Amino acid sequence: MILLIQYLFKYFLFEKYNIEVSLDDIHFGLLAFSTVFLAIAGYIINDVNDVKADIINKPDKLYVDKKITRINAQYLFLGFNSIGLLLGMYLSYYVGHTSYFIIYVLTSLLLYQYAKYLKKMFLIGNITVSLIIFLCIMMPAVFDIAPVTNAYNIEIQIEVFYVLLVYGVFGFFLTLIREIVKDMEDIEGDKSMDARSLPIVLGNEKTKTTVLTLSILLISGISYLMFRLYGGEKALVFYTVIMVLFPLIFFVFRLYQSREKRDFHFLSAIVKMIMLTGMLSMLML
Q1: Which residue numbers in the chain have pLDDT < 70?
Q2: Residue 196: phi, psi to the nearest 5?
Q3: CA distances from 242 to 4, 39, 229 (A)
Q4: φ and ψ at 64, to 5 degrees?
């Protein structure tokens, strides 16, 4: 998903608007894969710290201590994390803004802290993952657009930047919704780790109300964009209504009918599909 959205930005959106960019094909590839390597490292360290919960939540998908030793998993985490950080350091130097490396450091620290501590905290873990997804989506804006923005091209550069920002906010809200739904799915395992997720603290019914509120905010925001700002783009509006808004409305209706673990797993899959179809809407711009 990360590779898809970043390459759609580069080879569809940026080329369509013919904006000035700082990264050639090779360096943009390094940017995309550096982001993916950090994400892989985050998944690995999360699995290392989630063994106790995963034995309960998803015993059929347990890899650490079952298919790979914990020490080897930690080595893989260090390897992928180090490669991602080194690539980030090089790219920051390449675009002439070494301060941009702080984004990589922040992402790496957040992923590690999430796996160790933050995911057990009330709502903080959910927001952390959503923020990381937002940062991943915005990486092309920071490394490919910002370094070459000047007084002569700022208008078109900012226009494209706002498009990326819209997708970033879309990704943030969808990830936040999905993370909360996953907490409802994994409530038993999370209890074994003394986590304080929304379902554990508030109960499933109040958590559903929270997710409903977030979903309505997202539906309202997308509807405003489609009918007020992009109303003239008929293909984009039609695609978004059918492939994004209708599935979101279906998700809301199914949410209140959900009671079992398998129901929440299904809802999580729906949100993942909406994220994919939402990102593909860029082809309609």
Answers
A1: 54, 65
A2: -120, 60
A3: 21, 30, 18
A4: -70, 130
Q: Given the structure tokens 């992402």, which residue do they identify?
A: 107
End-to-end CA distance of the chain: 19
* Pairwise CA distance, residues 7 & 1, whole Å: 10
Q: What is the pLDDT of residue 213?
A: 95
Render pLDDT for 235-260 as a digit per residue (tens, 0 to 9): 888 999 999 999 999 999 999 888 89
Q: How many CB atoms lie within 10 A of CB 55?
A: 14
How far is 285 from 277, CA to CA, in rounded Å? 14
Residues composing the chain: 285
Which DSSP category does 261 fall into?
Answer: H
DSSP state of 243: I
Residue showing tokens 């409305």: 249
Closest CA relative to residue 182, chosen from 117, 243, 130: 130
Which pLDDT score is estimated for 109? 96
CA separation for the pair 158, 149 (Å, rounded): 9
| Alpha helices (H) in 186-197, listed in sequence order | 187-192
In this predicted structure, what is the pLDDT of residue 96? Answer: 95
pTM beyond 0.70: yes
Q: Please state, in angstroms and rounded to a whole number, the distance separating the CA atoms of residues 86 and 101.
A: 9
Residue the block writes with tokens 């920051």: 92
Would you tell me how many other CB atoms lie within 10 Å of the CB of residue 29? Answer: 15
Taking each helix axis as running N to C, give the angle between helix 261-280 and helix 246-257, from 0 to 180 degrees, rounded to the nearest 10.
170
